[in-house]
């Protein structure tokens, strides 16, 4: 049976590394919630309209076609760099510079000539695709049309091979506001190993709505709408059954029961079983996570803060904690006060 996941193309660099150091890959919540990217593997020149719970989105292509969900790898890389700087107290710019090779490696793409050619095409689609929406980012409602990226610049090393070495991307203000408002979520590294666009989209929805809670369910028809698939419901159900059969979706397994699709967070029981002994990582109760979510609000990724706190705990020599939940909650409040005070 063929592996449903892409191979790890660069095993010597399996951590998401950028100029700011090692960070977890992150995506903006708005594009995880709404189908802004086409799932087609062929040029898609159709204008798409989407509406859900009062949010409207109109996505219009250029002559190059709509931006694809694989093109989104570039944005994930940029967002992760910006968030790394933000977490270090910097005020990042909308303009990001980085090495083309680093982007290809960290997003598990080919570094062959074909890989660079596909990357160039992705920039053309991202720059050409325009969005008109009333979705708010960082409390700001944008009702005019804008491009996913405002501009890009490529430095060519060899005019004959057209091999690019350095890239400069200027994000749209709408996307930049998502980062500044910390309206982002961390995603699993194996996201970049998912072969099929529809699998990447279903993972995004699971990460956004199920998160790290035990279970979440959604109607099959509603999931079909949120995914933004152009295929009919029968073909969509076949895709869901394929994921169910191989169980290769990062972090989640899923099944169809009647007219519903049920997602389960794979590590829930394992995480719940972790003790608070000195030699183990501190366990944060699910109730504490939910309490932190309510108090911090949707602008904060509580699970990313949990990862930061665990890293702090390990770097501090793994001190024994009388109340890991209390220590984590105080950490969250301090981070919120720091952001609000800056």
SSE map:
Elements: E1 17-18, E2 21-22, E3 26-28, H1 29-33, E4 48-52, E5 55-60, H2 72-87, E6 95-99, H3 100-106, H4 113-128, E7 130-133, E8 136-137, E9 140-141, E10 146-147, E11 149-158, E12 163-171, H5 173-180, E13 184-186, H6 197-209, E14 215-219, H7 220-227, H8 233-246, E15 252-257, E16 260-265, H9 268-273, H10 286-296, H11 302-315, H12 324-341
> Which oligomeric form is depicted?
single chain
Poorly predicted segments? 14-21, 274-279
Q: Gap between N and C termini, in Å?
A: 53 Å
Order of helix and strand elements from N to C terminus: EEEHEEHEHHEEEEEEHEHEHHEEHHHH
Biggest sheet strand line-up: 4-5-7-10
Count of domain modules: 3
Counting DSSP H or I runs of 4 or more residues, the number of helices is 12
Radius of gyration: 20 Å
The 3D shape can be described as globular
Helix content: 25-40%
The computed structural class is alpha+beta
Mean pLDDT: 85
Largest sheet: 4 strands, antiparallel
Approximately how much beta-strand content do the residues carry? 15-25%
Q: Based on DSSP secondary structure assignment, what is the total number of beta strands?
A: 16
């Amino acid at each position: 049976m063929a592996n449903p996941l892409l191979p790890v193309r660069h095993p010597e660099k399996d951590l998401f590394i950028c100029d700011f150091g090692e960070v977890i890959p992150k995506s903006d919540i708005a594009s995880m919630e709404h189908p802004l990217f086409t799932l087609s593997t062929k040029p898609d020149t159709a204008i798409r309209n989407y509406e859900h719970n009062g949010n409207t989105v109109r996505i219009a292509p250029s002559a190059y076609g709509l931006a694809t969900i694989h093109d989104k790898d570039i944005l994930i890389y940029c967002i992760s760099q910006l968030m790394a700087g933000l977490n270090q107290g910097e005020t990042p710019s909308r303009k990001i510079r980085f090495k083309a090779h680093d982007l290809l490696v960290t997003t598990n793409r080919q570094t062959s000539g074909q890989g660079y050619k596909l990357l160039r095409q992705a920039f053309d689609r991202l720059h050409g695709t325009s969005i008109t929406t009333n979705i708010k980012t960082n409390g700001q409602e944008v009702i005019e049309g804008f491009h996913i990226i405002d501009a890009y610049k490529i430095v060519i090393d060899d005019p004959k091979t057209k091999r690019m070495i350095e890239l400069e991307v200027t994000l749209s203000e709408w996307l930049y506001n998502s980062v500044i408002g910390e309206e982002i979520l961390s995603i699993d590294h194996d996201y970049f190993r998912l072969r099929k666009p529809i699998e990447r989209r279903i993972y995004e929805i699971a990460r956004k709505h199920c998160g790290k809670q035990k279970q979440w369910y959604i109607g099959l028809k509603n999931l079909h709408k949120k995914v933004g698939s152009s295929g009919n419901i029968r073909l969509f159900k076949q895709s869901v059954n394929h994921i169910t059969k191989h169980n290769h979706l990062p972090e989640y397994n899923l099944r169809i029961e009647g007219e519903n699709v049920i997602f389960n967070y794979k590590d829930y029981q394992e995480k719940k079983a972790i003790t608070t002994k000195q030699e183990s990582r501190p366990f944060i109760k699910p109730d504490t996570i939910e309490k932190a979510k309510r108090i911090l609000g949707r602008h904060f990724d509580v699970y990313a803060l949990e990862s930061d706190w665990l890293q702090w705990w390990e770097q501090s020599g793994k001190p024994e904690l009388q109340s890991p939940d209390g220590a984590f909650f105080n950490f969250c409040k301090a981070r919120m006060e720091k952001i609000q005070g800056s």
